[in-house]
Amino acid sequence: MGLMIRSSAIHAAGCYTATAIRKGRRVAEYTGPRLSKDDADTRFSESPVTYLFGLGRGEMVIDGHSMAMFINHSCDPNCETEEVDGRVWITALRNIAAGEEITYDYCLYDGGDDECLCNCGSPNCRGTMYSTKEIRRRKAAAKKTGANKEKAGGRAATR
Hints:
Blueprint: E1 3-7, E2 13-17, E3 26-30, E4 34-36, H1 37-43, E5 52-55, E6 60-63, E7 72-73, E8 79-84, E9 87-92, E10 103-104, H2 132-158
Parallel strand pairs: 7-10
Antiparallel strand pairs: 1-2, 3-9, 4-6, 5-6, 8-9
């Protein structure tokens, strides 16, 4: 199987397959130096672009500098990631045609105030690269913050 990097409609450069890939086949491994999340946060605090991939519960990350770093996010991906014995594999969710861009759902979490807007263009696009779980968490937090602001505002108005 051959992979190549070229311009992408999703984001800058993307990873494409030169040959057809069958469902279930490993497409690439996400490799690079491993860092603690705290070390990565410190090291990349001023970096506008990173290629960090969280391992396990997110305490460790891979600072990815391999072919896989060019695989773009999609809300309707043709691949998924799988962590096996501390290694991260990108595996085909369906048959992928030669020339097709390789994508997976980033399922981002813990991104601070960034919106992480999605540009995948899929009909099912969430509009963000955050996971559905993270979207629900953020909405609940915003609702709670809004309710707290209302309560505080209400108390202030009655004094």
